[in-house]
Amino acid sequence: MQILSYLWPRKYISGARMRAALVVSMSVAGGALAASCPSVGDPQGIMSQSPYQLDLADYQAQSGKTLTLRENPEFAAQVAAGTLPPVTERLPSDALVYLPYDDCGQYGGTLRGMSKALESGTSEILSWRHVNLVRLSDDLQTIVPNVAKSWVWNDDFSSITMTLRTGHKWSDGAPFTADDVVFFIDDIIKNTDLRKTVPSAWMIADKPVEVTKIDEVTFRFDFAAPYPGLLHYLATGGSYFAPYAPKHHYMKYHASYNANADDEAKAEGHESWSERFGLIYHKWKDAENITPHALTRPTLESHILEAVTNTERRKYIANPYYFKIDSAGNQLPYIFRQHERFLGQELFVLSILNGEVDQKAQGVGLSNFSVLKEGEEAGGYKVTLPPGQTGPSITFNQTIKDLRMREVYADVRFRKAMSLAINRDELNEVLWFGLGTPEAALPLGVAFVTDEDRNYALALDADAANALLDEMGMKMAANGKRLHPDGEPFNILWEYAVQFGGESFTTLVADYWRAVGIDVTLKEVTSQLSREKAKASTSDINMEWDVPFEPNLISQVEYYIPPYSEGSPLVGQQWVNWVTTNGTTGEEPPAWAARLFELGKIWKTVLPGSDEYMKIGAEMVRINLDNMVIIGTVANLPGPTVVSDKLRNITDWGMQNYNYGRTYPFRPDQWYFSE
Fold first, then answer.
1. DSSP 8-state secondary structure symbol assigned to residue 549
2. Residue 16: its pLDDT value, please?
3. How is 455-467 classified by DSSP, letter by letter?
4. CA-to-CA distance for 579 and 577, rounded, in angstroms?
5. Which residues are CB-neighbours of 591 under 8 A, at least 6 positions away?
6. Cα separation of 193 and 451, whole Å?
7. 483 forms bridges with which residues in the sheet?
8. pLDDT of residue 20
9. Cα dihedral sign for 254, 255, 258, 261?
10. How much is the pLDDT for 658?
11. Which of 205, 250, 307, 554 has the most CB atoms less than 10 A away?
């Protein structure tokens, strides 16, 4: 049997190194306070296999003392009035103990942030509070327990048994048990009224996961083939999508438990119970938090919704049943409130300069670094440049419904010509101060990507681009604009969302294409409209690609095979439909895409780092490059990150990226404000 709290020693930190990490002083941002409890900076002899955390019994055994649990004083009045149980009755018996970065903090304050809109750019603030069965530690490699206390794999990684924390409760005080995991699998993701197909993350060898309840705190996931990347999914790109749901809350809305659910839904104006259920449950929790119903929906997150969301703001307060404590016995989180304002991106910089934001990285933009750096003292914040971001990518929609445009976009010569026409060195200098590296669109941090791959069709070569367009029969008209192969005028309608590629980027690239005769019309649209058009296959160009790092790719090969994004398909949604329905719907994929689908199925079953893993990875890279599916621009960009001078327990950011769960690895639930 395999008992693991992290997976792959080839690249990830070993258990010995992790234990050693707790007895070595670390550099942390902000002035360290006097040591009053074991911390990362001063562990006081406390050691753990998982970095900076351990279960309560282990902590007490090592420290030789029993922790007295203390609660947030904001809850004292409710406890005194009898409307809330004391903290000793709210926490699991095996609560998770955190060693904070600097010191055990102080309660209070409001963590202020901003997003673009209700469904645009909200993942960073969601990461302040969200939880999952496991998470990544701040090395962005090591998988550690979180909601789950422990797990055991079988020998071939086709079955995993997970143990929850005894006495863990939802935010309404109801028990959180294995029943909530079984409900999520059997009654939500496998319910054909709610979903046409099971999400790919839960499908292995064309068969969905099976879940078995063993007892109140133990369950088992069984897969039709090895799935060694499951924990990577839960800890990275899937960290936002928890594999459990409060059964006690949703039963009355579900037809499997309430025979009147359909009639009740129709009485409220819905077409069916499943339509109503889809409005009150969503895997993306911010989508749920738009509705008034969210005020009643229990969660395991560190903060719960305080008021009905509107188009201006969203407010949260601390969850009184949150399952973590610090090394002095104080229940986390320290910060009582979180406020999220919705602002146009053009107001982000002004709001930061005015000292109205406590932490922000998503959507800040490298172009704003200089002005933000100059405003640090007046704004009461620090701005740093963690590495690991990438510039925008471009995907021509080969499956666009407009068959005339599809004829051009589906020709690999056109896609290669458009790549060769881009001056990436100039893009890098003009938009990113030369801090990035021109690079093809590739997975990051993987050993099977070569320098040759990174430079594929990368250098500016207008002559080669023109030759390819001539070969396609796209003749140059007297006005300097090329014609469609049918002899009629040709124009690309590039509808872009600022979130995925701003005006400066699209303007420069459009000018490069015009230089080889390709006429382009630019139009800014919202992120929501961009996603809607991508799903409908009506957009000429799609840009919302979450470039996968190795931990993401291990479990979510969907990032690198059609449609390359589940929420906002880049290309080939019709091909996916054809494959998943055995040809009854959709369109038959071309040979290269069909091969990627085959490789994707095998990839999810192989051991990372193995010879087969390397072989499959290299073949996927070659297929994607040879077919120029996604056109890359610049990689290795730093990403400005703003943090209030008053915020404590902040470590040096290794990276702040969607695919790593934004701030999630850096433990926002142990942040606090100094006076």
1. B
2. 29
3. TTT-S--HHHHHH
4. 5
5. none
6. 48
7. 489
8. 31
9. positive
10. 86
11. 554
Q: Which of 18, 25, 66, 72 is nearest to 44 (CA)?
A: 25
pLDDT tens digits, 277-316: 999 999 888 888 888 899 999 999 999 999 999 989 999 9
Per the DSSP assignment, residues forming a β-bridge with 104 are none
Q: Can you tell me the distance from the alpha carbon of 202 to that of 178, in angstroms, rounded to the nearest whole number?
A: 17
- SS3 state at 660: helix
Tokens read off for 482 = 């090329």
Q: How far apart are CA 567 and CA 563, in angstroms?
A: 9
**Which pTM was predicted?**
0.86
Cβ-contact 547, 452 below 8 angstroms:
no
Tell me the residue ranges of DSSP E strands in 159-205.
159-164, 203-204
Helices (H) and strands (E) counted in the chain, each on its own, are 25, 26
Q: Which is more confidently placed, 357 or 14?
A: 357
Amino acid at 104: C
At residue 264, the pLDDT reads 97
Helices (H), 565-674: 573-580, 591-603, 611-626
- Contacts of residue 373, Cβ cutoff 8 Å, sequence gap at least 6: 383
Instruction: Indicate if the pLDDT at residue 24 is higher than 60.
Output: no
Both structure tokens of 150: 């422990």
pLDDT band at 14 (very low <50, low <70, confident <90, very high): very low
Enumerate domains of the chain plus CATH numbers: 395-635 (3.10.105.10)
Give strand ranges (E) for 237-336: 303-305, 313-318, 324-326
Please give the Cα distance from 244 to 226 (Å, whole number): 22
For residue 284, the model assigns a pLDDT of 85
Which residues neighbour 364 within 8 Å (Cβ) at sequence distance 6 or greater? 348, 349, 352, 372, 639, 640, 641, 642
Q: Which amino acid is at 599?
A: L
Task: Judge whether 667 and 302 are in contact, CB under 8 Å.
Answer: no
Token pair for 7 = 């997976």
